[in-house]
Amino acid sequence: MTKKHLFFALALLLCTMASKLNAQEYRTAIGARLGFPLSASLKHFISDPGALELFAGYRGWTYYNWFNVGGMYQHHAPISGVAGLKWYFGGGASVYFWSYDDIWLGSARYSSTTFGVMGVVGLDYKFSDIPLNLSVDWVPTFFIGDGYISGFGGGYGALSARYTLK
């Protein structure tokens, strides 16, 4: 089992165990997306099923790093029989600011900008006893531009934990 499969299996198990609790709705939540990249997240429902999520993230590696900002529209639908658990789908866009080393030509440092068109599918759970929202999602992204990365990226997503506001 790969790390991605294990991550999603554990997240699904967590949501299933949490479904034993009664849940209530929320309108706005702020917290973190613990994934690729690590991001600050603000999620706000603009209608009963529709939410906007805005995020800003950073990821650093040995030879490259990036900062990104973006937003997604998410359409939520309840899962019958499990209070507080919803599934969602949607899409959005992001802009990535890359900085990287050319390891083949010495220590030259480069930077670039790439745009991302994202899809999203996930699960969202709100605890009733505490102001906490958990979600897990997959965010396939198509990168546009001649920056550090371009084309399709299917390894993006996150486990999110947010403090809910009424």
Please tell me about this protein's structure.
The protein is mostly beta strands and 166 residues long. The protein has a single domain (3-165), classed as Porin (Beta Barrel). The protein is 10% helix and 60% strand. The N and C termini lie far apart (39 Å).
Number of helices: 1
Q: Kindly state the number of beta strands.
A: 10
- Gyration radius, rounded: 17 Å
Strand order in the sheet with the most strands: 1-2-3-4-5-6-7-10
Class, according to the CATH hierarchy? Mainly Beta
Shape type: elongated
| Strand proportion | over 45%
Question: How many domain units?
Answer: 1
Largest sheet: 8 strands, antiparallel, barrel
The percent range for helix content is under 10%
Structure at a glance:
This protein is mostly beta strands and 166 residues long. The chain has one helix and ten strands; from the N terminus they run H-E-E-E-E-E-E-E-E-E-E.
Keywords:
Porin; 1 helix; 8-stranded antiparallel barrel; disordered N terminus; mainly beta
Write the topology of this structure.
Elements: H1 3-18, E1 28-35, E2 38-45, E3 50-60, E4 64-78, E5 85-101, E6 109-126, E7 132-138, E8 141-144, E9 151-153, E10 157-165
Antiparallel strand pairs: 1-2, 1-10, 2-3, 3-4, 4-5, 5-6, 6-7, 6-8, 7-10, 8-9
